[in-house]
């Protein structure tokens, strides 16, 4: 079995947490790429407008996560797993370094908490749309490659007896006449062994199948059953217990250059269309144009409206930021009811 699956790892083997967790102010070791993690894009001059407004930093996008590191103090950082992303959009933001600009907005979830992040590109000519194109492209590639990382039951992985190979996946062998003994009675089928996973498919129906990536395997052993000796494959939610999972194939592939060229072409077309439309338009000036502690995490708690849009609760009422009160000339907590004003509250007293 070791010749097929590799030697067993010790209990100290690292877990694959990078794509499933959000960490604040992580140590340098947690920011380094683990085996199998690849940097897909890197951008300097990116501001964390939500929690570190006015601080210049660098944004790294890998096949597992998004990492922002403050340039002045690298102990101030954020690691956002791609599996935690709920919503990706471009929204206006107030940056201390660039003023009012369009920025990348991320609504995320981690456990029972909801966090929102706002990143602003500080380089001239760049902005939220470019960051959106990169992050959205990587997120879509991550979602499309889940078969490399996750157990799949009853999926369309076999068609007419032939295994549907994933990109860059190599088929090693096919073993016919393999019984699946997971139920009370056995089901006859075939076992496929590839460079990424084990696949079993029933001979009676292609829809009755199991796709099991090696990185999800915990133990492989021989055992006795009422049908005789059998091979038992035990799985676990995260990484496996074999050498292969130390350097797994996560399957996320993305070329940021293509998206950047398409975004640049779209911006040129939009600018040309705007210039043509403004030739006969008079523009009038509008008057009066308007490490991982609880405190760090609270800075990114999603507001009630943003959390509702993302399908979950925020971090409570404390997530609401202060607003300026013209009656008092101070920053105060906004009233809970939208129609309530400070003047009305004062008249009640």
UniProtKB/TrEMBL annotation:
Keywords: Cell projection, Cilium, Cytoplasm, Cytoskeleton. The keyword Acetylation does not apply. One of its GO terms (molecular function) is phosphatidylinositol-3-phosphate binding. GO terms for cellular component: BBSome; ciliary basal body. Coiled coil: none annotated. Residues 37-91, 169-223 form the BBSome complex member BBS5 PH domain. PANTHER family: BARDET-BIEDL SYNDROME 5 PROTEIN, BARDET-BIEDL SYNDROME PROTEIN 5. This is BBSome complex member BBS5 PH domain-containing protein. It comes from Raphidocelis subcapitata.
């Amino acid at each position: 079995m070791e010749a097929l699956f590799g030697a067993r790892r010790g209990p100290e083997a690292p877990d694959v947490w990078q794509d499933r967790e959000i960490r604040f102010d992580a140590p340098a070791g947690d920011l380094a790429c683990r085996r199998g993690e690849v940097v897909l894009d890197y951008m300097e001059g990116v501001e964390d407008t939500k929690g570190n407004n006015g601080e210049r930093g660098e944004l790294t996008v890998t096949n597992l996560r998004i990492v922002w590191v403050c340039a002045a103090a690298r102990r101030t950082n954020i690691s956002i797993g791609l599996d935690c992303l709920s919503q990706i959009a471009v929204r206006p933001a107030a940056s201390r370094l660039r003023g009012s600009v369009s920025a990348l907005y991320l609504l995320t979830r981690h456990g029972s908490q909801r966090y929102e992040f706002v990143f602003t590109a500080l380089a001239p000519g760049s902005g939220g749309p470019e960051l959106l194109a990169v992050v959205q492209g990587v997120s879509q590639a991550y979602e499309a490659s889940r078969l490399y990382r996750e157990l799949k039951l009853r999926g369309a992985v076999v068609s007419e007896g032939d295994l549907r190979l994933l990109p860059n996946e190599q088929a090693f062998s096919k073993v016919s006449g393999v019984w699946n003994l997971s139920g009370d009675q056995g089901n006859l089928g075939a076992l496929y062994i590839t460079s990424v996973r084990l696949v079993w498919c029933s001979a009676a129906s292609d829809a009755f199948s199991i796709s099991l990536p090696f990185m999800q395997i915990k133990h492989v052993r021989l055992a006795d059953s009422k049908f005789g000796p059998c091979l038992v494959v035990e799985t676990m939610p995260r990484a496996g217990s074999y050498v292969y999972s130390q350097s797994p194939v996560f399957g996320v592939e993305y070329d940021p250059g293509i998206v950047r060229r398409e975004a640049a072409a779209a911006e040129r077309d939009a600018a040309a269309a705007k210039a043509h439309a403004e030739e006969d338009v008079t523009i009038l000036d509008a008057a009066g144009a308007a490490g991982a502690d609880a405190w760090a995490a609270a800075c990114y708690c999603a507001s009630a409206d943003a959390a509702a849009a993302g399908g979950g609760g925020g971090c409570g009422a404390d997530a609401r930021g202060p607003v300026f009160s013209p009656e008092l000339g101070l920053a105060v907590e906004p009233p809970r009811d939208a129609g309530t004003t400070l003047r009305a509250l004062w008249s009640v007293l």
